[in-house]
Amino acid sequence: MDNVTMDFIIGLPKSEDSDSIIVVVDRFSKYATFITASTDCTAEETARLFLKHIVKYWGLPKFIISDRDLRFTGKFWTELFKLMGSELHFSTSFHPQTNGQTERVNALLELYLRHFVSANQKDWAKLLDIAQFSYNLQMSKATNPFELATRQQPLTPHTLTIGYTGRSPAAFKFAKRCTSKLT
């Protein structure tokens, strides 16, 4: 992930102490990472989440493109990534298409959550891992973001053709729910 875009989805109902999502997309592979956050998290908290969910797995990106959110334009964020060797670039309000890739992912994620979230809309945070996995498996011509980023196809419930229902009805129901949310 040499070149990533970042954005926040805000205004969500509270779910597991979070009310927003940080969306990070690799510009080459289109691999997306969805991170639960609080709307009022500071630049330092956002940086910790970025290190925990992006840098830990992929290393530091060379370029980070984001909107002009105060967390991204403030002294802490800009100095931190300058010290770490990443270049920060910002989209402008007159050219939001600079960050259009992330905006498209945001729209797809919001659609996914609307489709699967419960009536009270309080469980969206529990769905993010499956939403991320599902998004990254979406085929585009000959490959998908997961395969481009990891150079492998993951084993999924759809790739298993075993008719085994298991000894635990609860585990079988859980696996069935996960499978239905992946399609």
Automatic annotation (TrEMBL):
<dbReference type="InterPro" id="IPR001584">
    <property type="entry name" value="Integrase_cat-core"/>
</dbReference>
<protein>
    <submittedName>
        <fullName>Transposon Tf2-12 polyprotein</fullName>
    </submittedName>
</protein>
<dbReference type="GO" id="GO:0003676">
    <property type="term" value="F:nucleic acid binding"/>
</dbReference>
<dbReference type="InterPro" id="IPR012337">
    <property type="entry name" value="RNaseH-like_sf"/>
</dbReference>
<feature type="domain" description="Integrase catalytic">
    <location>
        <begin position="1"/>
        <end position="165"/>
    </location>
</feature>
<dbReference type="GO" id="GO:0015074">
    <property type="term" value="P:DNA integration"/>
</dbReference>
<dbReference type="InterPro" id="IPR036397">
    <property type="entry name" value="RNaseH_sf"/>
</dbReference>
